[in-house]
Design goal:
- With 697 residues, this protein is mainly β.
- The chain contains three helices and 59 strands.
- It starts with a helix and ends with a strand.
């Protein structure tokens, strides 16, 4: 405490004595002089001045702050950057200028010193750089090293180029835009200018204020720049009234083109007679001039013939009295889609022997063709004109040519046909098959779409092809045209398949062949009948238990095995079976097992007595099949019933004297086992039966 009092006394004494205060010094050099305790050396003690440290909110809250007040803002997370704190955006020293806290210096660890070398910025007002006798030089090595407003102006330091309208110049001076020009002045002389208009189809060089035209001057000596020291010669001039001069700066006002020289001549195009005649007649204007190297004469076109200046008189213009297109002799065939070359010879009458300039005429109707008549001469009297027709017709139809020659006209008509159709490949295996083919059922909505490649847009006459394998079907392709390239052909399949299996169709179209196959499913059994004829397999030879025989039904092999046979017997020499063969027997049983599903099991039953009943139990794969369709030929004496297990045949209405017959057919369902159980009154003699299998799966 004593030490502090002494320091305070000394400080006050110094203030009163000298009006100057010193810290760590007895000889202050200013109003307030702070001297470091250890100005040099390696001491780790802290020397310095600590200014009041506040956060932004505290600085913002101060009122009545004197000008030049100095603070250190150590936290900007508080308060807002507004009001007197509008400039407080970082930690650092700030002084008060009477209105706002002003940043004393940007902290080096927060932001570097801001200048044009390290920071982007925006001019707040117009600026002028007065160079005086000093220069500003920019150096660089990059494309677009210096630019103004993107690509308005760009300096390519890498390639020593300048771009206007582009920042990637490809020439020393590359200007991108559709108009550029040079003016003589920016004020009253601004109409004296030369400019370029650039567009996609007709760029132009333009001059205004050029009362004496544009002169093209050329110098040959290698001295001077921009005309200084150069000897220039005017080689051409273009005047505003449309005159042009070559070798003169003042072409004659009455000449569109004046060629002026005292030691040179005019050299026209040099053509042989054949080259001259090859010039299209439709584009030869009267007055066209060439030098004929075949005849060594100047020739000119008089609108109907070439006239040689070596000739004494020009040949007469050719005329005829009639030209008949309808009687033309047409050679060759015009085919759409390909490049053609054919001829038509058109007869005429009344030729005067004069020349004609030929004709080129394009087709109408079917477009894409041109008929060309070479220049020549009419014969005296009757003759013919041969037009060569070339080009690729746009469609099938009639191509019309408006013939106009020798003062007469007619219309030549040539037919354009489609080419004979052809394809590169035909892919039956890749066909898309629609609809289902079922044995015994008429096909409906069944198509096969066969892809092909390499179509030539030609015509195809269609095809009708009958099936093999499974017969009864027909595949029909309607006539039409092939596509250009890849496409498909749709065959419609009609008819009724005779059997199940594979139906094959021999496809032959467009010069290619392949075999289309369609599967025919079995579907329901075929309709049965009660005719006396067996159209399938008549079972015979089964005269004892567990014996088998085979036959064929609809082309399919079928095997039948008999079992559970009692009070029944077969005839070893024929197909007849007897059930309940003795007068004392009242029941019998006969069971057939087939190797595949069958239907339309037809029974020819005879010698039947009143009271005999035969029950048929049907199975497939061991499962009972019921509700078959049973047809009968004698329903007067017999009652036929379809049941849930098969059916019954009952001779309940037969007269008592016996010996009656019936044919019945059990069908409508598929089965592979038939169990026949018979019963009769005592004393009856039983029945005789012949069995026929009419359908198989």
């Amino acid at each position: 405490m004593k030490k502090n009092a002494i320091i305070l006394f000394s400080l006050l004494n110094s203030v009163f004595a000298f009006s100057q205060v010193g810290i760590n010094t007895t000889d202050p050099k200013a109003t307030f002089d702070i001297t470091a305790k250890e100005a040099t050396g390696t001491s780790r003690n802290v020397d310095g001045l600590l200014i009041p440290r506040v956060d932004r909110q505290r600085a913002q809250s101060m009122v009545g702050t004197p000008v030049s007040t100095l603070i250190y803002v150590n936290d900007i997370s508080t308060g807002l950057q507004m009001g007197t704190a509008i400039n407080i955006d970082n930690i650092g020293y700030y002084y008060f200028d009477g209105s706002f806290w002003v940043k004393l210096n940007t902290p080096s660890l927060v932001n570097p010193m801001v200048n044009i070398y390290n920071t982007n910025g925006t001019l707040e007002s117009d600026r002028t750089v007065n160079q005086g006798d000093k220069t500003i030089a920019f150096t660089g090595t990059r494309v677009n090293s210096f630019s103004v407003d993107g690509n308005t102006f760009s300096v390519d330091a890498a390639n020593n180029s300048v771009g206007i309208g582009t920042n990637t110049p490809v020439a020393k001076l590359d200007i991108v835009g559709n108009r550029m020009g040079i003016k003589a002045a920016s004020g009253s002389g601004s109409w004296d200018n030369l400019w370029f208009n650039i567009d996609s189809y007709s760029p132009s060089i333009n001059a205004s204020g050029a009362e004496r035209g544009i002169l093209f001057n050329v110098g040959a000596n290698a001295t001077g720049t921009y005309g200084d020291g150069q000897t220039l010669t005017t080689v051409a001039a273009m005047l505003p009234n449309g005159n042009m001069g070559i070798g003169t700066a003042a072409p004659n006002a009455n000449a569109v083109l004046e060629l002026n020289a005292t030691s040179k001549g005019f050299l026209p195009p040099r053509l042989t007679t054949a080259q001259r005649n090859a010039i299209p007649a439709a584009t030869k204007p009267a007055g066209l001039m060439i030098y004929n190297t075949t005849t060594n004469c100047m020739d000119f076109w008089n609108s109907s013939a070439w006239v040689s200046t070596c000739a004494v008189t020009a040949p007469p213009a050719g005329t005829i009295t009639a030209v008949t297109c309808a009687s033309a002799t047409n050679n060759g065939t015009l085919t759409t889609g390909i490049n053609n070359s054919v001829t038509s010879s058109i007869p005429y009458t009344g030729g005067n022997g004069g020349s004609h300039g030929g004709q080129i005429v394009t087709s109408t109707g079917v477009t894409g063709l041109t008929a060309t008549l070479a220049a020549g001469s009419f014969v005296t009297g009757n003759g013919a004109l041969t037009y060569t027709i070339t080009g690729t017709p746009s469609a099938v139809g009639n191509a019309n040519f408006a013939i106009n020659i020798g003062g007469r006209t007619c219309t030549l008509t040539r037919a354009v046909t489609a080419p004979v159709g052809s394809v590169a490949t035909l892919n039956c295996a890749g066909a898309i098959n629609n609809g289902t083919l079922t044995r015994g059922i008429a096909a409906s909505g069944v198509t096969s779409v066969i892809p092909y490649t390499g179509g030539n847009t030609g015509t195809q006459g269609g095809q009708v092809v009958a099936s093999t394998g499974v017969t009864g079907l027909t595949a029909t392709l309607t006539a039409g045209t092939f596509a250009n390239g890849n496409g498909t052909l749709t065959y419609t399949v009609t008819g009724t398949p005779a059997t199940s299996g594979t139906a094959s169709f021999a496809i032959n179209i467009g010069g290619r062949t392949c075999t289309l196959t369609r599967n025919v499913v079995v579907g329901p059994p075929l309709p049965g009948n009660v005719s006396e004829t067996c159209t399938g397999w008549t079972i015979g030879g089964l005269y004892q238990n567990n014996t088998s025989v085979s036959g064929t039904v609809n082309g399919l092999p079928v095997t039948a095995t008999v079992s559970n046979l009692f009070n029944a017997g077969g005839n070893p020499g024929g197909p007849t079976y007897a059930l309940m063969v003795g007068p004392t027997e009242t029941s019998s049983r006969l069971k057939f097992k087939f190797n595949r599903a069958i239907s339309n099991f037809k029974v020819s039953q005879s010698a039947t007595n009143r009271g005999e009943v035969y029950q048929y139990i049907l199975r497939r794969n061991g499962v009972i099949v019921g509700s078959p369709t049973i047809l009968g030929s004698n329903t007067t004496y017999f009652t036929i019933t379809s049941t849930s297990t098969g059916g019954t045949i009952n001779a309940n209405n037969a007269p008592t004297n016996g010996g009656y017959s019936i044919i019945y057919n059990i069908g409508g369902v598929w089965f592979d086992e038939i169990d026949i159980i018979g019963s009769q009154p005592a004393g009856a003699a039983g029945s005789l039966m012949i069995f026929c299998v009419g359908d198989a799966q």
